[in-house]
Amino acid sequence: MDFVDARRKSQFPRKILLAAGFITLFIFVFKKSPSFGGGSGKFSQHEPGVTHVLVTGGAGYIGSHATLRLLKDSYRVTIVDNLSRGNLGAVKVLQELFPEPGRLQFIYADLGDAAAVDKIFSGNAFDAVMHFAAVAYVGESTAEPLRYYHNITSNTLLLVKAMAAHGVKTLIYSSTCATYGEPEKMPITEDTPQVPINPYGKAKKMAEDIILDFSKTSDMAVMILRYFNVIGSDPDGRLGEAPRPELREQGRISGACFDAARGIIPGLKVRGTDYKTSDGTCIRDYIDVTDLIDAHVKALAHATPGKVGIYNVGTGKGSSVKEFVEACKKATGVDIKVEYLARRPGDYAEVFSDPSKVNRELGWSAKYNLQDSLSIAWKWQKAHRNGYSN
Hints:
alpha/beta, seven-stranded parallel beta sheet, two-stranded parallel ribbon, 13 strands, 15% strand
């Protein structure tokens, strides 16, 4: 649930018109679907041999890829999303791929609405929850911290309460390496102290604490995945990353690189060149979205009642922003113009993972390297210049 910024009152009438048009499109696309609205038929009953997974934020970049993988693996899926950051186009793609009754339903709802959340759980027979729904930009979190604490921490509390009230006993939580802050030692292990330095990381850690404290009083199966910088797209070209235009300045560096390569923006802005790293730019662990979702599915398969698993999901290798830009230039074949600016508030110099625990306990390891991930994502970007609109 978003807060209304009083500084943007002048845009309010325009937003009302946009929202009305969006809702009309939403109804047009989904009113004839047997799964529209949810909570009926196969979705409302447990079925032997079928695992019904609630995917929060399933219309978003990562959540939509998770939904695709779950459906391919014969799970039953319900997406709940308020579309504040997600794409209705991604949901439409998924429903066209899996149109059979009882496979996929989409419910338009806000996790901050306790009554709506309770109604969703009352009307559906969920076996597990994959919780992706969250605002997720470090820079934005420093400018709008209350939005982040509300959207991430408060909404997670409501979700866990609903799970407890309705007897849903498996939770796969999408967390982040931002909970670690800026550790003194690299690589980051699961035992690295969590000292987040921005509201995004702090809100995620608070959500983790809620889940962990509750797990001590219940037999819930909990898997917390703390992952690093996500890139890439579906290798078969069905889904990709398509942030809203107004969020491009806040988004992932991969999106900015592709926008620059396509001429949507004049060039790439790199924030911070004076960090204590080999070339002065930030070092990050870039994990392909397909690899990341594979870790989620393996976590779901290994979830055990009364047990908590916490895993770092990354490649174990850090790449600097300058190295990333060079890889993007190679993937796109475009000599992208780069402008170097001052640091962005809340950023940290170096973060990369030690994935040995997830390798050992879940049998997971990253398969895609940085260059491959960018090349695959670039194919989708070239074919979808206007995101899911074309």
